[in-house]
Design a protein that fits this description.
This protein is an alpha/beta fold and 426 residues long. It contains 14 helices and 25 strands. The strands form 6 sheets. Strands 18, 19, 20, 21 and 22 form a 5-stranded mixed sheet that branches. It has a 4-stranded mixed sheet with strand order 23-24-1-25. A 4-stranded mixed sheet has the order 2-15-17-16, covered by helices on one side. Bound molecules: uridine-diphosphate-N-acetylglucosamine (UD1).
Length: 426
Amino acid sequence: MDKFVVRGGNPLLGTIKVSGAKNSALPCMAAAILTEDEVILENIPQVQDIETERKLLTSMGAEVQLGYGRAQHRTHIKCAILSDPVAKYEIVKTMRASSLVLGPLIARTGIARVAMPGGCAIGGRPIDLHIKGLEAMGATITQDHGYLEARTDRLRGAHIVFDKITVTGTEDLLMAATLAEGETLFENCAREPEVTDLATLLIAMGANIEGAGTSTIRVQGVARLHGARHRINPDRIEAGTFLMAGAITGGDLNVDCCEPAHLGSLIAKLEQCGVRIDVGKDNIRVRSGGQLTASDITTEEYPGFPTDMQAQFMALATQAEGTTTVTENIFENRFMHVQELIRMGANITVSGRTATIRGKTSLQSAAVMCSDLRASASLVLAALVADGESILDRVYHMDRGYERLEEKLRGVGAQIRRMGDVFGKK
Ligand code: UD1
């Protein structure tokens, strides 16, 4: 297993570029299932989750070409024949977002077999709302041997009110509704930019959708969708992680190729912490003299403060003067990074869904373990200001969602390198 070796102390200076959003790319790749024609997606990030989705689609019979570098991170997907409409457990267990194929598969082929995702590090994460929605659209769903099987002659439009706001649930059912007979009205939808990005692709494929990006979405089903070309949005979570990296190291960093409009809650919070932010058209400059003040956060659905930035913000809070409270409202068990930050010298206590961070504490280097994607990013941020050399184990979590993180950070002055396992295990 690869490790990162990080030596703290350098302020980050210069320009760092943001890649395409993994959480947009995953549903957009699944959307290709809805048509026999070719779908071309640009600005696909080169991360492990995308490779997993490629495997998932090819295992069903799709042709997927992924090209990076000169090919501008472009993927060509053609689902002319879906000979095996099954999402196998071996793939689903490594990536929960595999359940995004459920809606498009049943809409296109009338049958879908998808392994049920197991538990994961940040809580139970059920998919009951995906199932409930498909049943309301006329699918019959059965469960056997750890798989869900959905069948229908043709989905029909329905009125679906989500009991709880779910991002992939909204995306999954939105895709299903594009090919259903008649109108589907969704209420209490997720408003995340990734939902809007997916809807933009679906509309380019011939879908009839109104209201994406608001909590009410209306879809008029069509008989067939066609191919399209679409450019994936910049990754707002990667951009946010870089803003935090600039702020925590007392740097002067230009975060380029991002979409500032998607980062409102984060920018406001950093300003409250005393960080200087200058917003451009597609870049954000972050400057900090290292003098940070405490400011509380509560994670919320978009446009609130994202749960995917909570762990990174907690690393920042260890360097702020005063007491910060961090309340996690979206997922249970999303404080896995706390114990590792404490091992580096942070003063954090947790009570239920709230963590209290008392700063400022000087962090010490340590050997620490990455437990999930965003927790890993929080440990990198802490290591960038710790005294001495930290070793981060299990960086495969990071590789699921951050493209060449160590190279990008090295380019702006961080001392970080990847170390392969001496025994050659991946
Ligand atoms: C997506 C993102 C993830 C982010 C999360 C919240 C992708 C691939 N992943 O995950 O990075 O952290 O949104 O912004 O886009 N829930 C149910 N039943 C369901 C579905 C969800 O109870 O059927 C609950 C979950 O347990 C959780 C909450 O709803 O408490 C929100 O989850 P959801 O928005 O679905 O997260 P994901 O879409 O899995």
